[in-house]
């Protein structure tokens, strides 16, 4: 499509089909701040749609052809099918339409310093940390993040500078529609195999993404990841590496964890000790996220002491090892978005360093394709969990074809030597936990679907072992 000048959108009517999505809602907020008339629709109301309504958008629940009338442009998500009544109506009326990724890329093109964070894991945390560092340094970035971040008041921040920070998802190669000045690649693993043919196909997509950077741009990548290391070697003129186990431009060593599992470590830049850094979020994996953020912040000319202080103050995004609250007897409820085997292992390692008696985990698999194709990896991902409950697969964009279910996953986990039980409905899971958990336990709800509701219900009812708090 032709280049979109965001200034020319002022006063225009933009309609979003699927406005409740984390990225779509953020784009809608950006346009509201630019003086656009924003409408949108989604299948159900949510915190994000209510926030949009409070900000001045008109949000319709349900998709109807009449919703798009009067629009100058219609933006739709990849989840919207060709038979959607609003999309069909827009096409019939001759209203221009554009998919979310293309539109985001066009908005990004208006900024001179686009920072796009890609990778199979860690995008939300790294995007959030980079955003906080830039904000604290007074660089006034515009931010679009795939989670709720208290420090920016949600999932979007609208700034006035040339800096634009966003997550870059590889699914359906949507990140190839972006315009990054700095491309960050955290890791490359098998995922989204409902779209990609194999790991080589995934690698080639990431390489194409890295090549989108201009001649004076940069590719920041984790050298400890074999495929990212290969990618950096394929374009050495732009490469800025970071890692823990291998020599890199930015490295961390002398790692220690406090009693909450929060790490501290020394950071080196090309062998020069930059000082002792500490995080207020748990886990070794977050050291990698921090190193990526430090490398980007340095490219933006930010003072190392400002970077160090911003890392220390960062408290995390919602659904990323988020401590939701405590029940009676000190039972802690934690929620985490992990839905890939590598992410699960990282979250469990963080939990093992967190004060606990026993670790409970309620895992909700995300999509049938991922569960089926990564079944063996899931089966070996839960070591360290004392009590594991598997609930039904969250279908997301897919339709159940009967080829896999959560009972299959629980069986395979048990065959791998880990004790797992399958439970279908959330209310039964809640009762089971309340009847069996003990003082000092931690309960982790884990997955990218709606499993977090279990923790919310436990805290709302404030009951444990039959007692009302």
From TrEMBL:
<keyword id="KW-0436">Ligase</keyword>
<comment type="pathway">
    <text>Cell wall biogenesis; peptidoglycan biosynthesis.</text>
</comment>
<keyword id="KW-0131">Cell cycle</keyword>
<feature type="domain" description="Mur ligase central">
    <location>
        <begin position="117"/>
        <end position="297"/>
    </location>
</feature>
<keyword id="KW-0133">Cell shape</keyword>
<feature type="binding site">
    <location>
        <begin position="119"/>
        <end position="125"/>
    </location>
    <ligand>
        <name>ATP</name>
    </ligand>
</feature>
<dbReference type="InterPro" id="IPR005758">
    <property type="entry name" value="UDP-N-AcMur_Ala_ligase_MurC"/>
</dbReference>
<dbReference type="GO" id="GO:0071555">
    <property type="term" value="P:cell wall organization"/>
</dbReference>
<dbReference type="InterPro" id="IPR050061">
    <property type="entry name" value="MurCDEF_pg_biosynth"/>
</dbReference>
<dbReference type="GO" id="GO:0051301">
    <property type="term" value="P:cell division"/>
</dbReference>
<dbReference type="Pfam" id="PF01225">
    <property type="entry name" value="Mur_ligase"/>
</dbReference>
<dbReference type="Pfam" id="PF08245">
    <property type="entry name" value="Mur_ligase_M"/>
</dbReference>
<keyword id="KW-0573">Peptidoglycan synthesis</keyword>
<dbReference type="InterPro" id="IPR036565">
    <property type="entry name" value="Mur-like_cat_sf"/>
</dbReference>
<dbReference type="InterPro" id="IPR000713">
    <property type="entry name" value="Mur_ligase_N"/>
</dbReference>
<comment type="similarity">
    <text>Belongs to the MurCDEF family.</text>
</comment>
<dbReference type="GO" id="GO:0005737">
    <property type="term" value="C:cytoplasm"/>
</dbReference>
<keyword id="KW-0067">ATP-binding</keyword>
<dbReference type="GO" id="GO:0008360">
    <property type="term" value="P:regulation of cell shape"/>
</dbReference>
<comment type="function">
    <text>Cell wall formation.</text>
</comment>
<dbReference type="GO" id="GO:0005524">
    <property type="term" value="F:ATP binding"/>
</dbReference>
<keyword id="KW-0963">Cytoplasm</keyword>
<dbReference type="GO" id="GO:0008763">
    <property type="term" value="F:UDP-N-acetylmuramate-L-alanine ligase activity"/>
</dbReference>
<feature type="domain" description="Mur ligase C-terminal">
    <location>
        <begin position="319"/>
        <end position="449"/>
    </location>
</feature>
<keyword id="KW-0961">Cell wall biogenesis/degradation</keyword>
<dbReference type="GO" id="GO:0009252">
    <property type="term" value="P:peptidoglycan biosynthetic process"/>
</dbReference>
<dbReference type="Pfam" id="PF02875">
    <property type="entry name" value="Mur_ligase_C"/>
</dbReference>
<dbReference type="InterPro" id="IPR013221">
    <property type="entry name" value="Mur_ligase_cen"/>
</dbReference>
<dbReference type="InterPro" id="IPR036615">
    <property type="entry name" value="Mur_ligase_C_dom_sf"/>
</dbReference>
<feature type="domain" description="Mur ligase N-terminal catalytic">
    <location>
        <begin position="13"/>
        <end position="111"/>
    </location>
</feature>
<protein>
    <recommendedName>
        <fullName>UDP-N-acetylmuramate--L-alanine ligase</fullName>
        <ecNumber>6.3.2.8</ecNumber>
    </recommendedName>
</protein>
<dbReference type="InterPro" id="IPR004101">
    <property type="entry name" value="Mur_ligase_C"/>
</dbReference>
<keyword id="KW-0547">Nucleotide-binding</keyword>
<keyword id="KW-0132">Cell division</keyword>
């Amino acid at each position: 499509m032709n280049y979109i000048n965001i200034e020319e959108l002022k006063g225009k009517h933009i309609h979003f089909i699927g406005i409740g999505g984390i990225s779509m809602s953020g784009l809608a907020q950006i346009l509201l701040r630019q003086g656009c008339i924003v409408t949108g629709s989604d299948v159900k109301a949510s915190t994000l749609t209510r926030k949009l309504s409070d900000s001045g958008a008109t949000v319709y629940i349900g998709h109807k052809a009449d919703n798009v009338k009067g629009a100058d442009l219609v933006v739709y998500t990849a989840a919207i099918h060709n038979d959607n009544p609003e999309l069909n109506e827009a096409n019939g009326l001759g209203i221009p339409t554009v998919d979310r990724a293309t539109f985001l890329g066009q908005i990004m093109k208006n900024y001179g310093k686009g920072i796009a964070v890609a990778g199979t894991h860690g995008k939300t945390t790294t995007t959030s940390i980079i955003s906080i560092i830039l904000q604290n340094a007074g660089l006034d970035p515009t931010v679009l993040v795939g989670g709720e971040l208290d420090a920016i008041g949600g999932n979007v921040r609208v700034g006035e500078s040339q800096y634009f920070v966003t997550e870059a998802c590889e699914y359906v190669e949507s990140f190839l529609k972006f315009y990054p000045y700095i491309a960050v690649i955290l890791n490359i693993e098998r995922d989204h195999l409902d779209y990609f043919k194999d790991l080589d196909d995934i690698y080639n997509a990431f390489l194409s993404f890295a090549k989108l950077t201009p001649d004076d741009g940069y590719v920041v990548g984790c050298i400890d990841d074999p495929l990212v290391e290969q990618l950096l070697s394929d374009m050495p003129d732009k490469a800025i590496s970071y890692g823990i186990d291998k020599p890199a431009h930015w490295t961390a060593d002398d790692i220690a964890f406090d009693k909450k599992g929060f790490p501290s470590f020394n950071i080196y830049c090309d062998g020069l000790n930059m000082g002792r850094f500490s995080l207020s979020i748990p886990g070794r994996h977050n050291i990698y996220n921090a190193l990526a953020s430090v490398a980007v912040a340095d490219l933006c000319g930010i003072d190392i002491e400002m970077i160090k202080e911003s890392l220390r103050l960062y408290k995390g995004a919602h659904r990323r090892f988020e401590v939701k609250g405590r029940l009676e007897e000190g039972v802690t409820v934690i929620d985490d978005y992990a839905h890939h085997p590598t992410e699960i292992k990282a979250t469990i390692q963080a939990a093992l360093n967190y004060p606990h008696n026993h670790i409970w985990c309620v895992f909700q698999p995300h999509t049938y394709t991922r569960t089926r194709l990564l079944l063996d990896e899931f089966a070996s991902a839960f070591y360290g969990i004392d009590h594991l409950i598997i609930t039904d697969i969250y279908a997301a964009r897919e339709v159940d074809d009967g080829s896999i279910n959560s009972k299959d996953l629980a069986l395979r986990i048990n065959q791998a030597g880990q004790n797992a039980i399958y439970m279908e409905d959330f209310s039964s899971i809640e009762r089971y936990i309340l009847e069996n958990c003990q003082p000092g336990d931690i309960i982790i709800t884990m997955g990218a679907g709606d499993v977090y509701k279990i923790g919310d219900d436990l805290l709302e009812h404030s009951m444990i072992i039959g007692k009302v708090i």
